Amino acid sequence: MNPIYQYFQYTLSFIKRHYKIISISLLSVLIIGFGILILFLGGYLGPSYSDEEILNFQNDEASEIFSEDGELLGKFFHENRTATHFDELPKVLIDALVATEDSRYYEHEGVDSRSVLRVLFKSVLLGNKSSGGGSTITQQLAKNMFGRKDYGIFSMLINKSGEIKTAQQLERLYSKNEILSLYLNTIPFGESIYGIETASQRFFNKHVSNLKIEEAAILIGMLKANTYYNPRLYPEHALKRRNVVLHQMMKYEYIKKDQYDSLTKLPLELDYANKENDGIADYFLSKVKIKAQSIITEYNLSNDTHYDLEADGLKIHTTLNAKLQRYALYGLEKQLKEKQQELYQQYKAEKYKKELEHLVNTRFDQLNVENKETKQEYFTWEGNEVEMLSVKDSIKKELLLLHAGYLGIHPQTGEVKAYVGGIDFQSHPYDQVMAKRQLASTFKPILYAVGLENGFYPCKYIRNEIDENEEGWKPSNYSKTTGGMYSMAAALAMSLNIPTVRIYNNVPFKALEEVWDNLQFESKLEDFPSTALGTTDASIWELSQAYMAFANGGFYVEPIMITEITAADGTVLYTSPELPKSHRVIQESTSLQMTAMLEKVMNEGTGGSMKNRFGVTLPLAGKTGTSQNYIDAWFATYNPNLVIITRVGAATNQVHFSSGRNGSGSTLALPITAYSLQKAQKDPELKSTFIPFDSLPNYLSNTLDCEDYKEGTDVEMFFKNIFKTKSKEEKQLRKEKRKEKRQKRKEKRGN
């Protein structure tokens, strides 16, 4: 007998004998299945939320920081999201979304029955993941709002059921357009960004309202898999997916075939802008965040509110000028690119090469590690590079890097207009604007200001000679020359050290210390003659306060970086005071005379290359500075509306240039400012802010009307005129005069 037939007969006999049991079992399964289906479709299997919870739902929204000229500088966030309203969403974006994700969106009330049944039987019961998600846009919104929980093997069933119920609530509580807006604000796009506005800014550097149809199709295409279809990482995938979206738009008659044909032929074009990693003001933003958090904390305590700086979509308006910031970045990069190569060349020479190797070995021994090679990413001005480096090679690269800081600040208001804290925030976050280094000759104007208030005046002549009977430390000029007498103004213009120390020795130290403290310097000023030459450490930030006082009539002005903070709904949480906090530190007449003398520095002295070499003709006063052994180069300059301080140096004082040709303040730091001001000078808007200095008032109008140099005191000159030298001696004297003139020219090119 056929075995199959036997099996059939046996089965039929079994069913007859157990008919009732089998019938009851099948009926039970059908009832249970039908019950599960009812519960599933009714949303009773999953988590539920009250209407109030849904209405009060709020996405985390990044706070945005803007420059004074309205440019987005960056964001503070838990989730990087910027909310957008429906009326800001272009029709092509909505059409692409509906055509691709939910073609019957306007017909259902949150749940598409056909899709749900397909998901239930194919995806949930049969485990066929390729059958599609089946969720409507509203269900996807429910998932994005409240997430999914783990229920083991029943996770899909339970979560989908909960999303059905929540979707039905959403349709009841919100309009179709509101749901679309909520959905597009919740969706993730990878790269830690959320929401369509943030994605539009990231990939196309434009507001969502300005998206073209092909750009909208790219972003909607990413919803299927935001990494796989990321247009930056996988442009080919993104292009294919874009064309699928466009095909869906044609299929559902949102575009015509000829549009589809032309759009699918377009290449992929991005304008990628990651303002979180590649912003123009990262160092500045790190300071703004600290200050903003302090302001918000104080506001919350005072008003019993709970604003979150990283979640509530605050708008933070700052003082930074985006144009000037870019010019500062340009100047710093242009100068350091060139000088970095010069430093590399210097340390290839045998003498300096040995010094560097000794320093590298010392640092390596301190680490107590093996000199293994690993793949490392490191900064270069041509872009970050990755290669196999040993520990010693890595140390050497870091030691040889030149670092710099640039601060631009309004002397009347204290508003920070430009802030470059270093060469690259991601790899070198240490802020050079706040780093303390020896001030060198940029300290001299502070001393000279105290001198003006204690018996000195710009035309007072000061001996440029060292007394032979003086013991201990003795100053020397940059040019190594001595002799004659220089006016106070000329001594500052040429940055002469010997006359400067003479001023220091003839003013009360207490008076100098008082001005120093009133300017809010943190380091203690020591009463040593070498202090006159700037051996005290201070930061760019601190030094700016002194030069602000010269520019604004003698006041310390507290710097500000934030002008206003508003909540997402427009509520003003903070507005900066109309008048900055300030107090007088020097007399107005002192500030006016200091400005006149520091203008002389720029026109005739060590700052002369600003005009002569770089062609910057803006009205400026300023001072260069070079610390011992060319370890740090400084340049401070100002106008009635802007103070700029720059400093350049390696991370350690053991690495530096060997001569003033590359390492002095006038050759290393000044050009950074000069390059930035070349740009500002060509910018009509910025150029207009560089107003001329006021003329000296009548009582000070002749304060600089004197010769820079005299050969000796008035008494000495009197006797020389009476007792004429013989012919041979006259010739020798003329020869010495010529020598002095040559020396004078050299001194003008001093530090």
TrEMBL record:
Q: Which SUPFAM superfamilies match?
A: beta-lactamase/transpeptidase-like, Lysozyme-like
Under the cellular component aspect of Gene Ontology, which terms does the record hold? outer membrane-bounded periplasmic space; plasma membrane
Transferase among the record's keywords? yes
Q: Where is the Penicillin-binding protein transpeptidase domain?
A: 409-640
* Major subcellular site: membrane
Q: Which family does it belong to?
A: In the N-terminal section; belongs to the glycosyltransferase 51 family. In the C-terminal section; belongs to the transpeptidase family.
* The protein, known as: Uncharacterized protein
Q: Name its species.
A: Flammeovirga pacifica
